[in-house]
Amino acid sequence: MSPISETKILTLAKQDERIRAVILNGSRANSLVAPDEYQDYDVLFMVSDIESIKKDNTIYNTFGQPAIQQLPDDMLLGSEKGVTPISYTYLMIYENGSRLDLTLYPIDKLDEYKRDSLSIVWLDKDDLFKDMPKASDIDYHVQRPTQREFTEVCNEFWWCATNVAKGLVREERVYAKDMMETVVRPMFLQLLEWKVGSEHNFSVSIGKSGKYIKQYLSTKAYNKVLRTYSNANVQNTWEAFNTMTTYFYELQLKLGKRLALDVNTKEAENTLKYIDRIYSSIGG
């Protein structure tokens, strides 16, 4: 089976009357992202009949059976109880490494379609998208925080940081790592995102999970971020955690000043003292 390509996708779409339009989304629609061999094809087919396309295996007959796949709209995991999805998505990786994320969207629900700013119209049989704006990443730009957002993110970080410290002193490694990575780190990354946004007039994106953040940080700052990651060794985790809390407070103070936001310094300093007291109790 040949690799997934624009030509292969469009050949199917042009030949199948049920497919009325083809829209490219994702990184391939983003001129700011350097292409590489691992890029997915994120494609949307506007179709007149989803069920018949599913039933006659149009997708598999055209692109072949994937080596790995997920059909999220057939799954209970991640679904919302009582809500029937409008569209249907195939997530497929092939033996040659090609990946196609293909969504079938019903043309009769066009009024409910939410355009992604990273959209390029590849085919439009009915001139439905002739006024589609030029693709850009504006939907993904870092947004300036409100005072409430800033306060609540900082509060969540400091409050939940105490759980990391307690988990580490008890050597509950799985708990401590889970709290640090799934609860505390997202707040840390949010401040980093706001830092980047504030330095670029809130007109840039750092990508999903901060994957583009390296290009916006100094080497020193980026290396500091990397030092907040560790293995499961307790002492190494303490060191990474202390780097994170120290840097978070530094970011909090700088953002407060730059964006004219109130900073709860008492909360931060009391939490740092609490963490230090726990760390000192084990001879840290």
TrEMBL record:
Keyword hit for Nucleotidyltransferase: yes
Entry coiled-coil feature ranges: none
Record keyword Transferase present: yes
Origin superkingdom: Bacteria
GO terms of molecular function: nucleotidyltransferase activity
Entry-linked Gene3D superfamilies: Beta Polymerase, domain 2, Nucleotidyltransferases domain 2
Alphabetic keyword roster: Nucleotidyltransferase, Transferase
Protein name, as recorded: Aminoglycoside 6-adenylyltransferase
Organism: Myroides marinus
Taxon lineage: Bacteria, Pseudomonadati, Bacteroidota, Flavobacteriia, Flavobacteriales
